[in-house]
Amino acid sequence: MDRALFQNKAAQNSSIYSGLQALVADEFENSRVSIRQMLQGLGIQHVDQTSSGKGVIESCRARPYDIILCDFRLTGNKNGQQVLEELRQLELLKPTNIFIIVSAETSRDVVMGIMESQPDEYLSKPFTQAVLARRLERQFQQSQALSKMKGMLSKKRYVELIPECTNHIKQEGRYSPWCKRTLVEAYLETGKFTVLEQLCQAELNVRDLDWALLGLAKMEAKKGNLEAAIAMLEKLLRLFPQTISAYDLLADCLEKSGRLEEAQSVLGDAIKISPRIHKRQKHMATVSMANGDAQTALKASQQTVRLGINSIHENPDDYIQLVDIVAESADSVESSVDRKRLLSEASQALTVIGKRFADDETVKFRKSLAESRFLASQGQQREAEKALASAKQIASELVDGLPQDLVVEYGKTLYGAGEHEQAEIMLASLVNDHTISDHLKQQAADFLDEPVSSSAKAQAKELNKEGLSSYSKKDYVIAIKQFKTALEHSPRHPGLNLNLVQTCLKLMEENGKNPHMVSECTEAVQRLRHVTPTHKQYKRLTALREYLAKHYNVAF
């Protein structure tokens, strides 16, 4: 920009900016002073400074700023991205505020993490006053034009927001693209799927747009059409492979569809692009553990804890998940030094839980449960029993009783401690309780089906696949052997047991009744006493049980 032109523009804007208040956060004083002078040169007279993330939070509590320029690197424990996320969580930012992250970082991981936090602007150091002026002018104009709509959006007043956005688009307003993307969110939240589809398709008829494809995928996912959502997301990522939020949604849809290995692969792709997102790493830890991939789960869980420290995301779940994963994976670590380090990391996580969440009785309860599971995994039975006894004592003293969302965790710990009957009664009560969420019911039912380690589940899953392959080829003898080997790893799994029964029956159809085969079927059915009428395998179990009773005189 020509210097004379810039000075003229600055003079025009000075009256607009003069009443605004700004905050500059940077670890280096010379940088703070330089940026402060730039802002004052643009007419912003009130400019405060701080060097730390804590300072930004405290300043925003004390005074409502219009503009915040925050460096990614700050003194203290918080970085600029964490500061932005915390300000939003604490509702210390107005919809019209302009939050700019400034950074000299060139690392792709850091830059992608910053961009995913969605600041209003991202300025790469070094920058000139002219660059800052252009960015501020653009953001100020947008903030002024969209202030009413942004206010409605922040308060989730979608019914009022929809006509405001629609009118702006009809008038061919400058911010129509923003309004269209915002309408997708508003239509999703209000269930207006027909108009959402019309909006997105109208745009796609002209050209492929990432937000329109993503909007349709979100709609299908919300309607429960997972396969349609998956197909749409796969198309989106072929066209726009940098649309990072699409990876997260695709992984979620794949997980809900039972395609856990594919979900893990998609999350792996997302982490390669942008690894510094807490929620993504936590999802990876959960999915990879369900797949029996303890090493990937461990790495993701460690990253989850690191990303949570000093951020608004830090919570006891992350530490407990790390302790449980270490308990499962430590024995597979060949190096004694690495194993010792891992065990120390788990112990440290338990210590952190005790210190940072000391005032929460339910967290104390969960810590004792996690400690019991961890100690039991290391063969320290006496210490594990003490930790479990401590958990039982805390549970008995909870004023409002044990929260329902902790019953599964409690039941799992009891089962692992050998108190099978009490654990099964507790978890079965959840499965049969019509007042609790389907998610909790499923968690309880899944554990009753497979109260074994993740690695055992993974081995059983692979052997089951081999058995189904042999069954499809009518190699029933081989299939029976494979199903029985799988059951050694997961003896209570309904699908595995019923696969064994069905294969034995097929073999007897060909070769006639075999007392040994009948005995195998009887024992398999008896292993499924925990299957209730609400279980997805109950109808199949009932049909096979009736067939055995009718054709082979088996009494149950």
UniProtKB/TrEMBL annotation:
Keywords assigned by UniProt, alphabetized: Phosphoprotein, TPR repeat
Modified residues (4-aspartylphosphate): D71
GO BP: any one term: phosphorelay signal transduction system
Signal peptide annotation: none
Response regulatory domain ranges (all copies): 21-140
Keyword Phosphoprotein among record annotations: yes
Keyword RNA-binding: no
Sequence ranges of the TPR repeats: 460-493
Pfam families, A to Z: Response_reg, TPR_12
InterPro entries, sorted: CheY-like_superfamily, Sig_transdc_resp-reg_receiver, ST_Response_Regulator, TPR-like_helical_dom_sf, TPR_rpt
PANTHER family attached to this UniProt entry: TWO-COMPONENT RESPONSE REGULATOR, TWO-COMPONENT RESPONSE REGULATOR ARR22
UniProt-recorded name of the protein: Chemotaxis protein CheY
